[in-house]
Amino acid sequence: MRPPPGFSHPSGLVCRLRRALYGLKQSPRAWYARFQDVVLQIGFQPSMHDSALFLRRTSHGLVLLLLYVDDMIITGSDSAAIDDVKCYTVFSWY
Predict the structure, then answer these.
(1) How far apart are CA 78 and CA 62, in angstroms?
(2) Which residue intervals define the domain Reverse transcriptase Ty1/copia-type in the entry (predicted)?
(3) Exposure pattern of 66-82 as b/e (b: 16+ CB <10 Å)?
(4) How many Å is the maximal CA-CA distance in the chain?
(5) Taking the mean position of all CA atoms in its chain, how far away is CA 61?
(6) Is residue 2 part of a domain?
(7) What is the rounded distance in angstroms from the CA atom of residue 17 to the CA atom of residue 25?
(8) Do the Cβ atoms of 54 and 65 come closer than 8 Å?
(9) Residue 71 counted as domain residue
């Protein structure tokens, strides 16, 4: 990896990356790990049958979150909880 233009650095030193770069082999795994951390923090449980499916039981019903590549499908019987999930996930990445 080369440092970006305009970045001055002494010769013979290398840069250490703090996160996975887009397009690298480990990038999808790093993104999924971050995504999983976020949804587990808000009470979702991973499905035993599909690693892309997360479930959250509330007092008013069930919320399902399905991950397809980098898209999320959120559905369930508790519309207030669905709105909460949308807000939380948006604020987690922006």
Answers:
(1) 6
(2) 1-86
(3) ebeeeeeebebebeebb
(4) 61
(5) 24
(6) no
(7) 14
(8) yes
(9) yes
Reading the block at residue 68, the tokens are 């397809």
Residue 17 lies inside a defined structural domain of this protein: no
Give me the domain span that covers residue 58: 43-93
What does 44-78 look like in DSSP terms, one character per residue?
-EE-SS-TTEEEEEETTEEEEEEEETTEEEEEES-
User: Can you tell me whether residue 86 is helix, strand or coil?
Assistant: helix
Reading phi first (left if > 0) and then psi (alpha if -120 to 50, else beta), residue 67 is in: beta
User: Per-residue pLDDT for the chain (94 aa), expressed as one digit of tens each?
Assistant: 667 778 777 777 777 777 666 677 777 888 889 889 989 999 999 999 999 999 999 999 999 999 988 788 999 999 999 998 888 877 776 6
Domain count, the chain: 1
d(CA 50, CA 66): 9
